[in-house]
Amino acid sequence: TGGIERLRINSSGNVGIGIATPATLLDVAGVAQFGDAATKSTITAAGLIRAVNGIATSPAYSFGSDTDSGIFSFGTGAVGITTGGNNSAVFRTASLRLGNIGSEALPVYS
After folding, report:
1. What is the C-alpha to C-alpha distance for residues 85 and 69, in angstroms, rounded to an integer?
2. Is 0.85 topped by the overall pTM?
3. Pseudo-torsion of CA 7, 10, 12, 17, nearest 10°?
4. Residue 106 near residue 98 (C-beta atoms within 8 A)
């Protein structure tokens, strides 16, 4: 690396990547990516989180050990919320669709 420090572990055990004085357990200056090629999520330098799309039974954002409830992308301009992997609400531009997202016979609320 041409003698340039790239990683530092301070006396508190904090790890800094691209930063000389890490303030937290992991402190990264720049963009960080996590996961494998197809399932990689990114945290940008501005702090934005870009996650994989996910599906109703495995949402991109889940909570604790409840891995089949959460938020996922339902395609361009649509976000899905799932509970138990099947009872969902889909938010689209100017409409709300409630019920099982696998069915097209759902009421639309505008």
Report:
1. 6
2. no
3. -20
4. yes
Cα dihedral 45, 35, 77, 59 in deg (nearest 10): -130
Torsion of the alpha carbons at 49, 51, 53 and 56, rounded to the nearest 10: -90
Span 44-75, pLDDT tens digits: 888 888 888 888 888 888 888 888 889 988 88
d(CA 92, CA 89): 10
Separation between Cα atoms, residue 35 and residue 38, nearest integer Å? 8
